[in-house]
Design brief:
The protein is mostly loops. It has 1 helix and 2 strands; from the N terminus they run αββ.
Length: about 60
């Protein structure tokens, strides 16, 4: 049984949860206004907003 076209376009990657990552505050030379948070949906279509889930352990898990 072959995969349908939708499944062929996506690759499974390892996910991380809040228990897997520790972010330590620190100095950065990155200027927030120069950060690109756009999301490319297709080669011709991009959104100027990020697509991500809420930063809450009750909303996001390793499967996302």
């Amino acid at each position: 049984m072959s995969k349908n076209r939708f499944e062929e376009k996506f690759v499974e990657y390892r996910g991380f949860t809040f228990d897997d990552v520790l972010l330590v505050p620190g100095y950065s030379e990155v200027v927030p206004s120069q950060v690109n948070v756009s999301t490319k949906l297709t080669p011709q279509i991009s959104l100027n907003i990020p697509i991500c889930s809420a930063a809450m352990d009750t909303v996001t898990d390793g499967k996302l």
